[in-house]
Amino acid sequence: MKVHYIYKITLLQGSLENCYYLGKKSSKVPQYAQGGNVEKFVVENPMFDSYSGSGVIPTNYFKKYGKILGETFLKEIILFSKDSLENCLNEELVIADKYKTDPLCINLVKGGKLNPALLGYKNSNSISLESRIKSS
Fold it and tell me: pLDDT 10s digit of each residue in the chain, 136 long?
């Protein structure tokens, strides 16, 4: 079972203290949590998948300060979605123009892009070496 959600990462140290990053995630829920309220499980255990964004700024921040929940960052679940497509739309709505107007928002783009793999396209890693050589 997968759960789709929008999250907020708030940074707690250095020059980026109190800055935040918004993103989307779709994760498999552990088998032991599937019998109960999945959304409650995710909210109470925001690091069950340990994902905290792929943005350039948070990635560099975590390299410097480490990824310690409650000490170097906080992770909040903002909104749940029914599927990946709705999650993309929700991410775009939640970020909106914050990445341009809010100095604490460290998103560099508005988000909302759907991963081509979710649309049935083949990931370049799964294409044969021969095909990649021909296309290059």
Answer: 899 999 999 999 999 999 999 999 999 988 888 888 889 999 998 888 888 888 899 999 999 999 999 999 999 999 999 999 999 999 999 999 999 999 999 999 888 776 555 444 444 444 555 554 555 4
Strands 2-11 and 73-81: antiparallel
Q: What 3-state DSSP class applies to 102?
A: coil
Whole-structure pTM value = 0.79
Rounded distance, CA 104 to CA 55, Å?
15
Tokens representing residue 44 in the block: 């109470």
C-alpha torsion sign, points 14, 18, 21, 27: positive
